[in-house]
From TrEMBL:
Domain NADP-dependent oxidoreductase: from-to ranges: 15-315
Name of the protein this chain belongs to: Aldo/keto reductase family protein
Keywords: NADP, Oxidoreductase
Cross-referenced Gene3D superfamilies: NADP-dependent oxidoreductase domain
Protein family (similarity comment): Belongs to the shaker potassium channel beta subunit family.
Signal peptide region: none
Length: 342
């Protein structure tokens, strides 16, 4: 497993990050979740990503239990705050109240005294940005958070946060951005990536497999494979159905010979593609089985040559979305991506 610096910070993270959205606490039994975490550790993964809102806190609890007994200094644990975690009006957003309370709750569920990376899960238009940045800075000064990041923020929002942190004389600054990014969804490339590279912010990207579609296991005109996320319980099928259109699935199958020529599985090709993009520090993978973790981890250290990258672009062509105005939106805005069947 290769490690990379997170942006221009001094923190090194594993190229492959294990994440537990839609799995721990809702779509995967605890024993299986623990086995997946162990598979990640065995593969050399040291960085783990979660959020307070995942399964309403259960995902943090499951991850904390699975990592119990592992030397804390050998791990980089990341979590997030902003999305609703309860019925109260203050159980959401980036107010000082919610940020501080949510951090304390996350630390308790994870069973740790600090998190390595604390991320604003979304931008909060209802809270003064200065209030949020000061609350984050206070957590850093208290030793409960080591580094700060954001997720799915637009370039202008990130730029304003950096400017304001400087004006306020804060000790901490944003070093990470967690966007949705893969071969098909490249909306961060025109604006977010250039800004981040100038400012030393590393991208830790989620959905490198586009909800599993880029693994090639979903075939046009056929039902979802038994045991896949699209065939599972919980919320996973509603997200995956947005990218199961036959037009898209046929094009994905054309990537098979490219993966074969590179000596990679389809999943490894997709993950390696993100790791070969400018500004990317790591790719977050999710899994419902340990073998998926081992397969995805095989993308670490893989270099894709220019010809391979061009072949991928030639295959996907007009299906690729690079519209920066869609930053922060789910991958459901292209009609040709959507499933026409129920």
């Amino acid at each position: 497993m290769e490690h990379r610096a997170l942006g221009r910070s001094g923190l090194f993270i594993s190229e492959i990050i294990y994440g537990n959205w839609l799995t721990h606490g809702e779509g995967v039994e605890r024993d299986t979740a623990a086995a997946c975490v162990q598979a990640a550790l065995d593969a050399g993964v040291t960085t783990f990503d979660t959020a307070d809102v995942y399964a309403q806190g259960a995902a943090e609890e499951v991850l904390g239990q699975a990592l119990k007994g592992v030397r804390r200094e050998s791990l980089e644990i990341a979590t997030k705050v902003c999305l609703p975690t309860g019925p109260g009006r203050n159980d959401r957003g980036l107010s000082r109240k919610h940020v501080i309370e949510s951090c304390h709750s996350s630390l308790r569920r994870l069973g740790t005294d600090y998190v390595d990376l604390y991320q604003a899960h979304r931008f909060d238009d209802e809270t003064p940005l200065a209030e949020t940045l000061i609350a984050f800075d206070d957590l850093v000064r208290a030793g409960k958070v080591l580094y700060l990041g954001v997720s799915e923020w637009r370039a202008g929002q990130i730029a304003e946060a950096l400017r304001l942190a400087g004006d306020l004389g804060l000790r901490s600054r944003i070093v990470a951005n967690q966007p949705q990014y893969n071969m098909l969804w490249r909306v961060i490339e025109p604006e977010v990536v250039p800004l981040s590279e100038r400012e030393g912010i590393g991208q830790i990207v989620f959905q490198p497999l586009a909800q599993g579609v880029l693994t090639g296991k979903y075939l046009p005109g056929e039902p979802a494979p038994a045991g896949s996320r699209a065939d599972a319980g919980g919320r996973a099928p509603q997200f995956i159905s947005r990218v199961l259109g036959d037009t898209l699935l046929r094009r994905v199958q054309e990537l098979r010979p490219i993966a074969a020529d590179a000596g990679l599985t389809m999943a490894q090709l997709a993950v390696a593609w993100t790791l070969n993009r400018p500004g990317v520090s790591a790719a977050i993978i999710g899994a419902t089985r340990p073998e998926q973790v081992r397969d995805n981890a095989g993308a670490s250290g893989v270099t894709l040559d220019a010809e391979t990258l061009k072949r991928i672009d030639d295959v996907l062509g007009d299906l690729v979305d690079r519209d920066p105005a869609k930053t922060g939106k789910m991958m459901d805005v292209r009609p040709e991506w959507r499933a026409s069947r129920s």
